[in-house]
Amino acid sequence: MPPAFYTFTFLRHGESVGNLENRYQGHADFPLTETGRSQAQRLAQRWQEAGVTFDQTFASPLLRARETAEIVCAALQVPLEFDPGWMEINNGLLAG
């Protein structure tokens, strides 16, 4: 039996309101901008065309990551689980 191995693909969220406003985001919960949604949709389409798929996906529950993951996972029809372990670090008073 061959040894088990895993391939990980890391995806950063699309442009968020916090990115657009040049803010430290941390745990502040900024949604995607329309540009960010478009970025996620274009990536999902490119991956669909290339036949990319995943067995499982995990995402931060913060809006910017959640929205990005939901767009991509819906297009690829792959399971999605939200886990706070994937949240950006809490940067305290700098957040937002």
List keywords for this structure.
single chain; mainly alpha; 36% helix; globular
Quaternary structure annotation: single chain
Strand order of the largest sheet: 1-2
Approximate helicity band? 25-40%
- If you compute it from the alpha carbons, what radius of gyration comes out, rounded to the nearest whole angstrom? 15 Å
Strand content: 5-15%
**Residue-averaged pLDDT:** 94
Poorly predicted runs are none
Shape: globular
Biggest sheet overview: 2 strands, parallel
State the order of secondary-structure elements, H for helix, E for strand. Answer: HHEHE
Structural class: mainly alpha
Strand elements, count:
2
CA-CA gap between termini:
50 Å
| Helix count, DSSP H or I runs of 4 or more residues | 3
Structure, described:
This protein is mainly alpha-helical. It is built from three helices and two strands; from the N terminus they run H-H-E-H-E. Helix 3 links the parallel strand 1 and strand 2. Helix 2 (34-50) packs parallel to helix 3. The radius of gyration is 15 Å and the shape is globular.
Secondary structure: elements and pairs:
Elements: H1 17-20, H2 34-50, E1 57-59, H3 63-76, E2 80-82
Parallel strand pairs: 1-2
Helix pairs in contact: 2-3
Quick gist of this model?
With 96 residues, this protein is mainly alpha-helical. 36% of the residues lie in helices and 6% in strands. The protein has 3 helices and 2 strands; from the N terminus they run ααβαβ.
